Amino acid sequence: MAGQTVNVTFESKIYQDAGDESYQIQSQGKLVQKGAAWYLTYDESLEDQPRTKVLVKIEEGRVAITRTNVTKTRLVFEKGLVDQQPYQTAAGVMLLATNTSKLVQAIDESGAGKILLDYALSANGEVVGQYQVSLHFVR
Hints:
The protein is mainly beta. It has one domain (about 5-139): Lipocalin (Beta Barrel), CATH 2.40.128. It has strands spanning about 5-15, 20-35, 35-45, 50-60, 60-70, 70-75, 80-90, 90-105, 115-125, 125-139. It has a ten-stranded antiparallel β-sheet with strand order 6-5-4-3-2-1-10-9-8-7, with no helix packed on it. Strand 5 (about 60-70) and strand 6 (about 70-75) form a beta hairpin. InterPro entries: Calycin, DUF1934.
C-alpha cells in the first residue's frame, strides 16, 4: 500500500507532582504500511517550542515513538515491558524508561486508526510522571 495522507489528533494528559497538564495537537500526516508494521509520520508545533518531527512505528502489541527536533527521543511501548532509552540533553545523557500499563491499538483497512497508551515515565530511575496518550488518525 502506498502512503496515504491522514488527519492526526494527538492528546496527552500528564500527571506530575508539580501539577497536571494536558495538550492536544492536530496535524496532517502520512501513513505507510511496510510488511506487518505501520509507520505514521507528522509534525508537532507547540507554542514556544521548535517544530518536532514525529515517527510512530506500530506493530502488533508494540508501538515506538521517535520525536526529533533539537534532540531525538525514542520511546517504546509494550505492555509489561520496561524499556530504557538514552536521551541526550545539554547537561549530558539521561536514561528514560517507559513502563506501559495500557496499550490499545487498531487500524482498519481504510487506514483509520487509534493508539491509546497509559504509561509511567522515569528519568534516571526516578518516576517523573504518569501519562495518558490518545492518538487518532483518519483519511
